[in-house]
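Entry type: protein chain
Record version: 2
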Amino acid sequence: MTDGDRMQVTTMWRYPVKSMLGEQVTEARLDEAGVSRDRRVAVIDQDTGLVATAKHPRLWRHLLKYTASVRGDGVVITSPSGWALDATAAGVDEKLSAELGRVVRVATERPDGATVERPDPEDVLAEGVEAAVHAETLEIGQGSPAATFVDYAPVHLISSATLDEIGVEHVRYRPNLVLQTPPGTPPFVENSWLGRELRIGDDVVLRLVLPTPRCSVPTLEHGDLGRSPQAVRALLAANRVDVPGFGTLPCAGCYAEVVRGGTIRVGDEATLG
């Protein structure tokens, strides 16, 4: 095993509501569904039945101004307008509908065949976030055994080498794990990890299964962070990857499935096998 196979977990996140801002944690339990309480809740468009996601910025980019956090057995949504309520509380659907400009409901169980709309990020960059560009419809959770609202597989991670190359804030990519890689590690090293297993701490084993295709989300405003077209333009220029089943797409990071669950902590060593 080389030094290049040894890394460290420096940051962990969970996102209790899909496409809302999440919360940073120092310890997390992982099982086959991924990080505990991650992407367990979503907003559903009542008219279309589609899962609301900031991948479609004309309709849903303002979701990235809301924050979701775990409180006891529930999830609290905090609105940029100031209110904070449990996601399942009476009146939340009406408040979100009024602020988002579409009739929505909060869902805690993923419907069978749940889908999202995803415009090509190049179209959004060229036409702007308000443009009515063509959007593909994609089924989510295809690489997960659990009925959560993940885009593909239960865990999403990205390396410091890739982030350093792009030069934008890691939160734009909404990873569960940021891994500090050794000095000299090339950017987009995650492309070479696919098919390998990653052991984290004493217990957890992940299998790295797919490059993470990037939509418009990293370029959008995230809370107080402004827009950053560079977050995807850098990938369009330097890391277009053939993603099995999805085509050749700009990618950063990778998805993983959980081979063996357990508890991980910031500071844990992560070792590729």
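Comment: The chain has one domain: 3-272.
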